Amino acid sequence: MIIPVPPSPCKQELPLVNFQNGLIMESLFRHHRNKDKVVVIMGATGTGKTKLAIDLAKHFQPAEIVNSDKIQVYKGLDITTNKVTEEECGGIPHHLLGAVDDPNYNFTANDFCHHACSAIDSIVKKDGLPIIAGGSNSYLDALVNHHAEFRLRYECCFLWVDVSLPVLHSSLQARADRMIEAGQVDEVREFFDPSADYTRGIKRAIGVPEFDDFLRAEANGEDDMTILRLLEGAIARTKINNCTLANRQVQKIHRLHRVWRRSMHQLDATDVFLRRSSGDSADSEEAWQDHVLAKSLMILHNFLYK
Ligand code: ATP
Fold first, then answer.
1. Which of the listed residues 86, 94, 171, 221 has the most CB atoms within 10 Å of its CB?
2. Does residue 249 line the site of ligand 1, with CB under 6 A?
3. 238 CB near ligand 1 (under 6 Å)
4. Residues ≥6 apart with Cβ < 8 Å to 146
């Protein structure tokens, strides 16, 4: 059922990281510690978890990413589910991404714990740093709070990428428009099955059930005006549902924060998004480096080496 993504060897020279005012030599001697270390990147949909995971993996090589998004574990619907592209991965191996072939399979929190543990074990055996990243807080809760083997073997540092909700909502709406431009409608049309059960597997993805009435109208040969009206409705519902998802995810993170407070670090990326929305991508990238990446590097340096 699961197709393991073969990890590529990524041992490199020890990197020198230009880190605020000084140079810090990143070393990789983690194995002498009692517990192995795992980094967990949390945040609502669309906050930049994937980018942070890849940026950090490049700094702390060898590092590999374990996906914890319950919809991205399935194969397919890459645009709709906003999967990272091969180019964006920059050669960093990813686990549990597009790994489940059966679109109807119910990939449970237990499945996640089982597969995430074996991926993490394989990364640690190679002296690599496992970075878990994804928005499914129920998976993280099951793994970190309830999975005995994980609790026994690993110590976690949680990085929470936070964006003020009104700012995130407008970014999610712009992202939904970009997905449409990138071909989401064709992608969902190919998956369309009039007898689909939208409560199972990958078809739960936001951006799939919302298009049902539009695709039915198309299949039934209804008139262009009706089809266009239904398409606009589908896009509007997708935007609303993404914003609602973000709100729910933030509420769950606040609950987990009460439990993991001591090892959880909140990184405010709002400024990154504000600058991006004003059209200055260089300025936005600078804000990312300053407000999110540099702080994360400092936190992880303390976590890994002190
Ligand atoms: P819940 O218990 O509500 O399912 P969770 O913490 O297990 O929450 P979430 O990641 O918050 O998992 O996902 C909740 C719902 O959000 C999914 O069932 C799906 O409808 C939608 N969703 C999550 N990730 C994606 C994605 N990558 N693309 C599209 N929709 C998604």
1. 94
2. yes
3. no
4. none
- Assess if CATH 1.10.287.890 describes domain 169-241: yes
92-102 confidence digits (pLDDT tens): 999 999 999 99
State in Å: Cα 151 to ligand 1 middle.
Answer: 24
- Of 237, 187, 191, 232, give the one whose Cα is nearest residue 210: 237
Query: Is residue 40 a contact partner of residue 140, using CB atoms and an 8 Å limit?
Result: yes
Pocket of ligand 1 contains residue 71 by CB under 6 Å: yes
Of residues 93 and 26, more confidently modeled: 93
- 136 in contact with ligand 1, CB cutoff 6 A: yes
Mean pLDDT of the chain, nearest integer: 90
Q: Is 205 in the pocket of ligand 1 (CB under 6 A)?
A: yes
CATH architecture of 35-164+261-305: 3-Layer(aba) Sandwich (3.40)
Q: Out of 245, 252, 254, give the residue to mutate to test ligand 1, the one with the largest number of ligand atoms within 8 Å of its CB.
A: 245
Better pLDDT: 10 or 3 = 3
* pLDDT tens sequence across 135-173: 999 999 999 999 999 999 999 999 999 999 999 999 999
Question: Measured from the CB, is residue 70 less than 6 Å from ligand 1?
Answer: yes
Distance from C-alpha of 177 to C-alpha of 136, rounded to nearest angstrom: 23
How far apart are the C-alpha atoms of 179 and 27, rounded to whole Å?
A: 40
**Domain ranges, ordered by start, for the chain:** 35-164+261-305, 169-241
Is there an atom of ligand 1 within 6 Å of 116 CB?
no
Which residue minimizes the CA distance to atom 25 of ligand 1?
71
Confidence of residue 281 (pLDDT cuts 50, 70, 90): confident
- Provide the sign of the torsion angle of the four alpha carbons 134, 244, 77, 184, taken in this order: negative
Kindly report, residue by residue over 102-143, the tens digit of the pLDDT.
999 999 999 999 999 999 999 999 999 999 999 999 999 999
As for the ipTM of the complex, it is 0.98
